[in-house]
Structure formats: structure tokens, C-alpha cells
Amino acid sequence: AKAVPGTSLQFPPEGFERGSGQVLDAEQGLRAGVSKDEFVLFYQPKVDAANGALLGFEALVRWDRPGLGRIAPSDFIPAAERTGLIGPLGRLILAQACQQIARWRAEHGEAFPVAVNVSPLQLIDTQFPQLVADTLAQHRVPPALLTLEITESAAVTHLEQARDQIRQMRELGVRVALDDFGTGFSSLNLLRSLPVSTVKIDRSLIEPLPAPDAAAVIKAICQLAAVLQLDVVAEGVETDAQAQAARHAGCQVLQGALYAPPLTVDDAGAWLARA
Ligand code: C2E
Ligand code: CA
Ligand code: CA
Ligand code: CA
């Protein structure tokens, strides 16, 4: 196995057999895309459940592939993870997000936080906290304006490393959110054992709202989060009834199609200008 430059990772990962043409095609296409910087971030607003005020954005990557259109992350992130290219791609994404935070901060005077999704492979990369520190410094971004969203499943699979890495990122002053919360099995205990700042409740738990049993689950999560002093974000809010039920259950921050889909950087800037 070869080292992946700039990371502590090896490629191919242990036990991985190369040789499938499909994997090689995906790798070549992605490698070219990374070197030509074909990835763009869209920004989805997060709003205050109490009054609808803009609180920040989640950055969601898309691949604008010449001649092939715009490709969704579910269609290339898995290949990037399999091929080790998530290392360089993740660096581009982090840099683009930090650059944008700095621009908005300069343009609007007020600071708007941005959350960036972190792949499980980045989470276990021991060089990742240093990369975060360097990228923030390079773009002169106050660490509190960056949130890293890590998935519950990644944290469960690599619990010891995850805990240590999250602690290092929190020490930098960066916020860390546990994403897709409620889709795994060890959820409640996990919440207690990881030094995260925010819980992000998965859309699959928000979707059945305002059904009373679903509301009771959200309420229980919010009560535990309050004891642990964590913020709660509800993702995938599509209807007024869901928004009301989520707010009622104790979610402080809402995100979803009811407010806005992921926006181009210009459209997100227009939201900022109005905020
Ligand atoms: P996620 O982090 O759970 O992101 C939420 C997904 O739900 C996004 O899909 C978003 O566009 C979509 N969404 C937002 N509001 C609504 C809604 O009201 N209804 C519905 N049905 N969907 C909504 P997207 O952008 O396709 O991203 C999918 C996944 O890809 C993300 O799930 C995340 O796991 C991953 N991803 C996205 N960007 C990045 C990135 O920059 N790096 C990494 N490593 N993963 C990323
Ligand atoms: Ca996310
Ligand atoms: Ca999520
Ligand atoms: Ca999700």
C-alpha cells in the first residue's frame, strides 16, 4: 500500500483489491476532476426555530463535470472514499468553505458559520486536525465559524479515534456536529461519550412528524441534548407541521426544503444580504 499524500492514510486500504475497470475509471475521472477543481459547494441555510432568522449554512458538494452535468455527492463520494481521493477532495472542500466564510465575513461585517461534511476517512486521518488548523489560519477564519459534521456511523465504527480527533478539533475552537443522528443503534450513549457540540437529527426521524410517537422520540433526544449542553439541529424539514413539531420538541435550529434547498454561492449571498 502507498501513503496518500498529506494524510496518514494508505491506499489501497488494507484488504482492498484493485483491478476492477470500473474502480479505475472512477479513479481517473475523479483524479482529473480534483486536479481541475471541478467541485463546487452549495450552501443550505440553517434557521433559528424560534424566529426563522438565518444562523448559517451547510456546505454540500457537487461535481460539475464538463459534458456530464452536475453530479450529486452520493454518486462520487463513495468512489472517492474507495480510491483514497477523498483526502485531496476533502482538502479542496475545506479550503473552499473557509475561503467563503472569510469572503462573507468581509462583505457583510457579520459572521455566518458554515458546516462542512467530513468523511469517515478524514475523521480517522491523524493529520486532519492539523489540516483544519492550517486551513483556518490560511484564510484567517475564526475557528468558531466552522462546524465539522461527522456521521454517527463513522463515530461508532472508529469510536476511540473519533473521540480523540473530535477532542483535538474542539481544542482548536471548531464546532463538531454528530450528523445523521438516530440512524444508528448506540445513539444515546454515543452522545454522552463524544465531545461534540451539536446533534443533527436525521431526516428519517423528522419526516414522520407531527406524528406523536415521532415527536416523543425527538423530544427525548432534545432533553438528553439539553442535559449534555448540546445544540440540536433538525434536518430535512419540508413542511410547516414538521417545523412546528420539531420546534415544540426542542430543536433550536431547522434546515430543509421548507426554508431553502442547497443554494448557489450567489443565492446564499442574497440570503445573507437580507439577514
Ligand atoms: P447529509 O449531510 O445528511 O446532507 C443532507 C442531504 O439532504 C443533502 O443532500 C441535502 O441536499 C438534502 N436535503 C436538504 N434538505 C432536504 C429536505 O428538506 N428534503 C430532502 N428530501 N432532502 C433534503 P446532498 O446534497 O445530495 O448530500 C447527500 C450526502 O452527501 C450528505 O448527506 C453527505 O453525507 C454527503 N456530502 C455532501 N457534501 C459533502 C462533502 O462536502 N463532503 C463529504 N464527505 N460528504 C458530503
Ligand atoms: Ca451533513
Ligand atoms: Ca445530515
Ligand atoms: Ca441525513
UniProtKB/TrEMBL annotation:
Extent of the signal sequence: none
Domain of life, per lineage: Bacteria
Residue ranges occupied by any EAL domain in the UniProt entry: 23-275
Name used for this protein in its record: Bifunctional diguanylate cyclase/phosphodiesterase
Organism from which the protein derives: Piscinibacter gummiphilus
Species classification: Bacteria, Pseudomonadati, Pseudomonadota, Betaproteobacteria, Burkholderiales
Part of the full-length chain shown: 483 to 757 of 757
